[in-house]
Amino acid sequence: MVPQRLPLPRHSHDADCLYYIVAGSLTLGTETLSAGDGFFVPPNGAYAYVPGPEGVEVLKSRNADHFNIKFMAGNPAFWEKAVETVRAERPGWGVQSRPGAKSGPPPVAAE
Question: Which of 17, 20, 66, 77 could bond to 59 as cystine, CB 3.0-4.6 Å?
Fold first, then answer.
């Protein structure tokens, strides 16, 4: 799961990637996608998305166990803001509710 309120910076990777939106929504270019939607990114296809107001939970599937990734945000101010955002959000990751959930932490998988 991508941390729900963090944008995914523009990047590409050398493997197919299929996304399925489990909960919440995201904006990919000019399209807003919601739970039940999905999208495909071919190898070396550059993309980015921004989570919706409630956040987003995605399931990713790739056709490779290992792949190379290339981030395209070369602006130091972008990365400084990204690090600041991660530091601010990280303490709450373990207790975040799923997008659209009323309250409480995400479910814990049975062992």
Answer: 20
